[in-house]
Design goal:
single chain; alpha+beta; 6-stranded mixed β-sheet; binds zinc ion
Length: about 400
C-alpha cells in the first residue's frame, strides 16, 4: 500500500530505514535507491538517480511558477570508534521518542521530512515545481553534487536541510584549505649551518600566520584559521636538514571574504616571516562518487548570506510560522551545500532542518521525533508560502 504523505508513522519508519542503510561517505547507493523507491511510492511526477548518484524527485504543480529545490545529503561520516556507541550505529532504533543512529540528525531525518513534505503538495494549489535532491559526497566536497543537480534542474530558491534547530538560516560560513610550502637547502645534520632548515622557516611563517587578525561578522561570527597538519621533506629524515616543509591550514570564511583577498593575507604573512619563496595554494579535493563520477577541484567553498528582508527569508519565516513553528534567524557555522547554491550560483538559499549542529558527527547520534515531525511541517510551510496559489 502506498504511504500517505501526512502519516507520521510512515515518515518515522522511512527515517529509521534510511539510518539502517549504511551510507558512510562514498557509499550512498543503497540510500539513493531507497529514496528513489519511496519517491515513486509517494507518486512524485519524476524520479531518477542521476549519473553522479544523486536521487532526484520532482513534484509539478498544475500552474506555472518558480522552482523550489530542497537539498539533503545522503552521506554520513564514519562511526568510529564503533565500540564506543551504546546503541547500534546503524540500528535505526526508536527509544525514548528518539531515532538513534549515524545519520539520524545529519541528515537522514531532514531528507525523509523533505520527501514527505514534497509528496504532500496539493498539485492543484501548487504554482511551480518542488524538487528534492538527495545528494552525495557532501562530507567531502560541499556543493559539487548540488551543482550537478542544479545544472540540469535550475532552481529559483534553494532550501538546505542541515540541522538548524528548526530556526531559519540565512547565512553560512565558508571553508577553504590552504597548503603552505617552505623550501630550504639540505645538508648533513652534523653540519646544519651548511644548509637551510625548511622547518625553521615554517616555524617563522606559522608565527606570522597565528598573528593574523581574524575578521568578524555581526551575524555569522568569526573567521577561523586552524593549522591542521604539517610534515617535513624528507620524512622521516635520517641525518639530513629538511629541504622542504608543508603545512595545511583550514580557514573558515565569512560573508564578504573572497579568494584573492584571503590568499593575499597569507602570502603577506609569509613575506613578513622572511620566507619570500614560500608558496601558498589551495588544496584540491579529489573525490569519486559511488557511480564513478570524479570531481577534482580546489577546496574553496564560499561563504554566503541573504539580507533579513530578502523575499525568500521573509516567505520562509511566514511559512514556518504558519506551520506552528517559532523560528529565529540563524547562521550555519559549518560549511554546507549552500556554498554552491548561494555562494557560487547566486541562487537565493536558506537553511532549515531538525536537530542541531551539536548532534552531528557524534557518538550515539540521535534525532528527536518531535523535531522530525516539525521539520516536515516546516518544509511544507515554506513550500506553501512560496508556491501555493489558492485564490486565482
Ligand atoms: Zn550534514
Amino acid at each position: 500500500m502506498a504511504p500517505e504523505p501526512d502519516n507520521d508513522q510512515a515518515l518515522i519508519d522511512f527515517t529509521c530505514a534510511l539510518v539502517r542503510l549504511e551510507s558512510v561517505l562514498g557509499n550512498e547507493r543503497n540510500v539513493a535507491e531507497r529514496v528513489a523507491g519511496e519517491m515513486r511510492a509517494l507518486l512524485f511526477d519524476h524520479v531518477e538517480v542521476d549519473d553522479a548518484g544523486n536521487a532526484i524527485g520532482i513534484v509539478r504543480g498544475l500552474k506555472d511558477g518558480p522552482t523550489l529545490l530542497f537539498d539533503a545529503h545522503m552521506d554520513t561520516v564514519d562511526v568510529l570508534p564503533a565500540e564506543a556507541w551504546s546503541r547500534e550505529p546503524f540500528g535505526g532504533q526508536v527509544v525514548d521518542d528518539r531515532i538513534w543512529g549515524r545519520g539520524s540528525s545529519d541528515m537522514k531525518g531532514a531528507l525523509a521530512a523533505m520527501v514527505y513534505a514534497a509528496a504532500g503538495r496539493e498539485r492543484a494549489a501548487l504554482a511551480g515545481t518542488v524538487i528534492v535532491s538527495a545528494s552525495v559526497g557532501a562530507e567531502s566536497i560541499e556543493g559539487a553534487a548540488l551543482r550537478t543537480v542544479m545544472d540540469r534542474y535550475p532552481a529559483d530558491y534553494v532550501v538546505i536541510g542541515e540541522a538548524s534547530g528548526l530556526d531559519l538560516v540565512r547565512a553560512g560560513r565558508g571553508r577553504a584549505e590552504f597548503i603552505i610550502e617552505t623550501s630550504g637547502k639540505p645538508s648533513h645534520a652534523s653540519t646544519p649551518d651548511a644548509g637551510i632548515n625548511a622547518v625553521h622557516r615554517m616555524a617563522a611563517v606559522i608565527g606570522e600566520i597565528e598573528k593574523l587578525p581574524m575578521p568578524e561578522h555581526g551575524f555569522v561570527g568569526n573567521g577561523v584559521m586552524c593549522l591542521t597538519d604539517i610534515i617535513s621533506v624528507p620524512y622521516p629524515a635520517h641525518s639530513v636538514v629538511p629541504s622542504g616543509c608543508r603545512a595545511t591550514y583550514e580557514r573558515r570564511l565569512l560573508p564578504g571574504e573572497d579568494r584573492d583577498g584571503v590568499t593575499a593575507e597569507i602570502v603577506e604573512a609569509c613575506g613578513r616571516a622572511g620566507a619570500a619563496d614560500t608558496t601558498v595554494s589551495l588544496a584540491d579535493t579529489d573525490y569519486r562518487t559511488y557511480t564513478g563520477v570524479r570531481w577534482v577541484e580546489p577546496k574553496w567553498f564560499p561563504p554566503w548570506a541573504l539580507d533579513e528582508d530578502h523575499a525568500l527569508v521573509q516567505s520562509g519565516l511566514r511559512g514556518l510560522r504558519a506551520s506552528g513553528l517559532e523560528p529565529s534567524l540563524a547562521s550555519y557555522q559549518f560549511c554546507t551545500n549552500g556554498a554552491y547554491s548561494a555562494g557560487v550560483a547566486g541562487v537565493p538559499t536558506i537553511g532549515f532542518g531538525p536537530s542541531t549542529e551539536h548532534h552531528a558527527h557524534v557518538i550515539d547520534e540521535f534525532l528527536d521525533i518531535d523535531q522530525l515531525l516539525k521539520a516536515r511541517r516546516g518544509y511544507s510551510g515554506i513550500a506553501a508560502a512560496l508556491l501555493d496559489r489558492t485564490a486565482s
